[in-house]
Design brief:
The two termini are 53 Å apart. The model has no long low-confidence stretch (mean pLDDT 80). The chain has twelve helices and no strands. By secondary structure, the protein is mostly helical.
Length: 297
């Protein structure tokens, strides 16, 4: 009976998703009037990308998750860093959660048809656990990817500061050093900085303001500090060449310390498989003798 109830709930959710997909809800008149009087949001420096089949499967549930207050503010920062849309992320969460919910039910249905049904608590618990795990899995992978991108951006920013310092030492101005230095680099970090500076040029705004906005979106304090230092140089004429050199050296030292710490951590993790292999070898060697002694008693 419990299996039939769960299968009925899953079938109802699937039918509801199909109806929402075929006949999407229309916005009310009040929402349209509010949209007309809403101030436009500032242009984001980061672009977004779309997903695959999981996004299409979970798209009908994205609006429902948005009504529940998802994604959170911190998760929106991670989405900006990884260049992913919020609706894409919510659709993946819904799709993986539904797949985790339906997989044990499908297995139970096959076993029931084959005449070997499992106790109802086992598929119900498995469905609940897999649904929660599938719902939270995109958040975990998003945090890990955002952390990797921020680390890579800091590494590229250190090289960018060195290039700016060299150009300033050669007599270039602050604006010229910013644009010329970013033109020599490649990769995702330099592309974001280049896009930010191009946006500042097209909108006739200051380049350090654009860099500061990019630092806030990426949650990289070093880029925000760079924008503040360049702002002082551009508005008050302060000399920032020495401070940029010191900041670049500090970032290189920190990157080296982090790389050394990661290498030591990887070395410690490598010792665990060796210990397990040695323990298994000891058991393999001494088990026949212990079995013989036990049998002779």
């Amino acid at each position: 009976m419990s299996t039939i109830v769960l299968l009925g709930i899953g079938t109802g959710l699937g039918l509801w998703a199909m109806v929402v997909w075929v006949l999407p809800p229309r916005p009310t008149l009040g929402e349209l009037i509010t949209l007309l009087h809403t101030q436009p949001k500032p242009i984001h420096q980061l672009t977004t990308q779309e997903g695959g089949w999981s996004v299409r499967l979970g798209a009908p549930f994205a609006s429902l998750l948005r009504s529940l207050g998802l994604p959170h503010r911190s998760m929106e920062k991670h989405l900006a860093v990884t260049a992913r849309a919020a609706d894409t992320h919510l659709a993946e969460k819904a799709a993986l959660g539904l797949m985790g919910l339906m997989l044990p039910m499908a297995i139970e249905l096959v076993l029931t048809i084959g005449g070997r049904p499992l106790p109802w608590a086992l598929p119900a618990g498995g469905a609940l656990g897999l649904a929660v795990g599938g719902f939270l899995l995109p958040d975990l992978s998003l945090r890990a990817e955002a952390a990797r991108r921020r680390a890579a951006f800091r590494h590229a920013l250190s090289a960018y500061l060195n290039l700016i310092h060299i150009l300033l030492a050669g007599g270039a101005g602050v604006d010229a050093a910013l644009y010329d230095a970013v033109g020599t680099g490649q990769g995702w970090a330099f592309q974001q900085i280049r896009r930010s500076l191009d946006t500042a040029r097209l909108t006739r705004s200051s380049p350090w303001h654009a860099l500061g906005q990019l630092g806030e979106e990426l949650e990289i304090s070093e880029l925000t500090e760079l924008a503040a230092a360049l702002s002082l140089a551009g508005t008050e004429g302060s000399k920032v060449r020495d401070s940029l050199a010191a900041k670049a050296a500090a970032m290189r030292s920190r990157d080296g310390a982090e790389a050394e710490g990661q290498a030591n951590s990887a070395t410690e993790r490598m010792a665990l498989p060796g210990m397990l292999m040695a323990f298994g070898f000891v058991i393999f060697v001494f088990y026949p003798a212990l079995n013989q002694i036990t049998a002779s008693l």
